[in-house]
Design goal:
Blueprint lengths: L10 H35 L13 H16 L6 E5 L1 H4 L13 H4 L2 H9 L4 E5 L5 H9 L11 E5 L2 H12 L12 H25 L5 E5 L21 H14 L6 E4 L6 E2 L4 E2 L12 H17 L11
Helix pairs in contact: 5-10, 6-8, 7-8, 8-9
């Protein structure tokens, strides 16, 4: 029997219409859900600091950062000294990107040297190889900052990876197999930005720290153009002017800041008469060896003692 004119459509048409409606609604739900996931992903994975080359890095980085985050949360009740930085500081842990399969000259003997200085103290090392200042700021805001709230002192050593990035940006990348020459004016501009980045990181540290807590800012160490035959040359035409100028700016910036001590340790790594970086202290003209690390810690020790932090490490200990 055929349906009368104006009556309900056939079942087949009703099912088709319902199917289209469900499909349309599902598509809308899917679009909304996808958009929400994208927003969450962008909030989590986007670069919160544009000057940084990818503040949120690969899974290896994320994995180690999660370890540091757990350690930071575990130290929320307070530490004597928290060390914040990049590979030079991570070496205190005997690792690189959290792995103890580290190049020998980068890690061998360094945790033992660090322990000799700080075995009587409660310390925490929050550092990841390759980090720039913006990585550090991101890590602090991502949860590591909780470790600073009751810390007596923080030692910040950061900036050498910013320096290489700024030099690379200035000369257009390392396309020339020879060492790029950085003109004096460009080097001064690099120093200005470098000092500003370190100052911004100090401000971030301060925002998490309790009143009365102190910060030691360790100036940039000497660095050689390691891709040159004269890779240990100091001064050199790539990094020297920027390093010394940035360190001077930071020293002046914190000269009258009672909460911050600036410490320059450049000279302890140099063989002045030979105009070069001491290869025994920095085998790659960048990362201190165990002997170099002892001199570095000796260099910052007076500031810690002045803060009332009972550091060991004297030659007689």
């Amino acid at each position: 029997m055929r349906p009368a004119s104006g009556s309900a459509p056939p079942l087949r048409k009703m099912m088709a219409a319902a199917s289209r409606l469900v499909s349309l609604r599902c598509k809308r739900v899917l679009v909304v859900a996808t958009a929400c996931l994208l927003v969450v992903y962008m909030m989590h994975d986007s670069n919160p600091f544009p000057e940084c080359l990818g503040c949120v890095r690969d899974r290896k980085y994320r994995s180690f950062q999660s370890v540091l985050l757990q350690e930071a949360q575990g130290a929320a009740n307070g530490s004597d000294v928290v060390f914040v930085g990049d590979s030079i500081t991570e070496a205190f842990r005997g690792s690189s990107y959290g792995s103890h399969e580290c190049l020998e000259y980068r890690c061998a003997g360094i945790p033992e040297v660090f322990g000799h200085f700080f075995s009587r103290l409660k310390t925490l090392v929050l550092a990841i190889s390759g980090d720039q200042t913006a990585h550090v700021k991101w890590r602090l805001t991502a949860g590591e900052g909780v470790a600073l709230r009751k810390a007596r002192a923080v030692v910040l050593h950061i900036g050498t990876n910013d320096l290489s990035q700024l030099v690379s940006r200035t000369v257009g990348g390392w396309k020339d197999p020879r060492t790029p020459f950085v003109p004096h004016g460009e080097a001064l501009s690099i120093a200005d930005e470098l000092a500003a980045r370190v100052q911004s990181t100090v401000d971030t540290l301060k925002s998490y720290m309790a009143p009365g807590a102190r910060i030691i800012v360790v100036g940039l160490l000497p660095r050689g153009p390691s891709y040159q035959p004269s890779s240990f040359a100091w001064p050199n035409d790539v990094y020297t002017t920027a390093i010394l100028t940035a360190n001077k700016q930071l020293s002046l910036q914190y000269d009258e800041d009672d909460s911050v001590d600036f410490v320059s340790c450049v000279d302890v790594f140099l063989v002045v008469d030979d105009r070069k970086i001491n290869e025994e202290l920095m085998k790659d003209s960048l990362h201190p060896t165990d002997k170099g690390t002892k001199l570095l810690l000796d260099c910052i020790k007076p500031s810690l003692l002045q803060m009332g932090v009972n550091v060991s490490g004297d030659s007689g200990d």
